[in-house]
Amino acid sequence: MKPHLFQYIRAESTQAAIALLEEFGEDAQILAGGQSLVPTMALRMANPETLIDISAIAELQTIELSDGVLTIGAGCRYVDVLNSDLVAKSAPLLCQAIPYIAHDAIRNRGTIGGSLALADPASELPACMLALDAVIIVESKDGQRKIPAGDFFQGTYFTDLAENELLVAIEMPEIASNQIHKFYEISRRSGDYAISGGAFVLTHEDGCIADARLAYFAVSDCAVLATKAGEALVGNSLSSEIIETVSDIAAGEIEFFADLYNGEAMKKQLTKVLTRRMLTKIHDGMN
Predict the structure, then answer these.
(1) CATH at residue 248
(2) Residues 49, 65: one domain?
(3) Alpha helices in the chain (DSSP H)
(4) Are residues 74 and 155 in contact, defined by beta-carbon separation less than 8 angstroms?
(5) All residues at 6 or more sequence positions from 153 whose CB lies less than 8 Å from its CB, including other chains
(6) Which one of 101, 114, 179, 258 is most buried, by most CB atoms within 10 A?
(7) What does the pLDDT look like over 136-179, one tens digit per residue?
(8) Which residue stretches of 13-90 are H helix?
């Protein structure tokens, strides 16, 4: 199957892209890496009249660290982030997560901003943004908005991004010396969508957990932060009893959604297993 006829425009700057979004409105679609958009167009599941290509905008492809805040341009490809020493030092969770994303061909073309704007519930990066307490920066002719990740992702392929807004960057705090980042997912085979996945950021003091952000993906209608499970960790050390309790709480507080191959019961059980494995690995790494 072939896509419908469409107009193609290559934007040379962020402001040019925003002006084009304003001009063409809901009939326009942003093209960055195209790893999700192009297949859906080929299947005629997406039928934009105008494609605005932002892949050549250099200002969207920067990675910077300033005053303890890591800023990643929305146009950065997965491979750019994975190979960045700055990201590896400042937000290692991302470098742990990206190798799980599809295959090399996808990682060489797909972009960070494209993944977040799509908000696929099975995607790894939205959960990472929740765990990292990131802020999504979007821009329109009226200026910039900074949206906490917890407010940005609102459902399956549904975000707080308006039709005339362009996702331009993501900000996240630099990892602290007493923080641990851990990512893991369970899938049928390498490159497949996850059945259950988790992105954890834990802060520890004097052998106890001082703060915990446990984010999950591929289990519900969007990435979800298990707040009750995180609260249960605070003030405790990672004993086998606490790990089991937290795993039960996480599996109990998430509203699970079935996919084509796995029912809600399977997702719930694997999420419990995944939580136990991740916290056990964190415990073993602390001792």
Answers:
(1) 3.30.390.50
(2) no
(3) 14-24, 37-42, 78-82, 85-90, 92-97, 104-109, 112-118, 124-131, 149-152, 227-233, 240-253, 264-286
(4) no
(5) 119, 126, 129, 130, 159, 222, 223
(6) 114
(7) 999 999 999 999 999 999 999 999 999 999 999 999 999 999 99
(8) 14-24, 37-42, 78-82, 85-90
Using an 8 Å Cβ cutoff, are 21 and 48 in contact?
Answer: no
List, in order, residues 6 or more apart from 270 with CB less than 8 Å away: 186, 195, 196, 262
Cα gap 43→36, rounded to integer Å:
11
* Torsion of Cα atoms, 32 then 34 then 38 then 39, to 10°: -150
For residue range 180-223, list pLDDT tens digits in order.
999 999 999 888 899 999 999 999 999 899 999 999 999 999 99
CA distances from 27 to 44, 78, 175, 286 (A): 14, 27, 40, 52
| 1 assigned to some structural domain | no
Q: Are residues 145 and 162 in the same domain?
A: yes
